[in-house]
Amino acid sequence: MKIYTKTGDKGQTSLIGGTRVPKYHLRIETYGTVDELNSYIGLIMCQDIEAHDKQLLKEIQDRLFTVGASLAADPEKSKMKIPDLHDTDVILLEEEMDAINETLPPLKHFVLPGGNTVVSYCHIARCVCRRAERLTVELAENSFVDERVTVYLNRLSDYLFVLARKLNKYFNAEENIWIPRV
Question: Which residues contact 162 (CB under 8 A, 6 or more apart)?
Answer without folding.
Answer: 96, 97, 100, 101, 104
